[in-house]
Amino acid sequence: MTVLLIVDLLAEREAFGKKGVEEIVKHFPDYEILLWAPHIENPIDYGFGTRIDEPNEYDVVVITGSRRNVSMWEPWMDRVARLIKECKVPLYGICFGHQIICKVLGGEVIRAEEKTESMMFVNYNDTRVVNQLFSHQDHVIDSGEMEVIASSEHCDIVACVHPTREIKTVQFHPEAVLSVLDYSVECGDMNEEERVEFGDGIQDLDFSMSFFGDI
User: Fold this and answer.
1) Which residues span the domain enclosing 161?
2) Predicted structure pTM score
3) Exactly one of 98, 139, 162, 173 is catalytic; which is it?
């Protein structure tokens, strides 16, 4: 069976963790799901997938967002960095995943004074414009080996691809669909005031289909 490895860096959260990963794996039907959360000892039981202590064999890798910061490097991140360097299969990075991939591949990440939490338009080099959800404070200011393919009003490096390896990254959260945002209030991951920052929360869902596509 084909194996999808989720580097599950929000495994302590019900909404952006469990529900977000549920949205991601919908794009990989019939895959065996492995969940790796190197940043914490007791991740939430999702009721699906297999928790592992260290990745071994896998056919696709997705590195999720995180409440931690690439600009504030922690020892466990060395393990994720090693995975990125050694990965020979399709690799996707979301938010923190985007940042750490760019950092490991020679780029630079800095911390902004204020956190960005909003829906925002993303402008692709091929003239596509998509509406997506952002929630981050670290910014990639040098993409290293990665080629920049999209920007937004607040961030010059929003999406990247690698010129020779099968790697795609985005600063925003294509998995944070409206149902995930609403559930985040239900389960207490966000309060009503925080939820208001994302407005109607309606993303361009066809983007998610294309992001988790062939690379």
Assistant:
1) 3-211
2) 0.94
3) 173
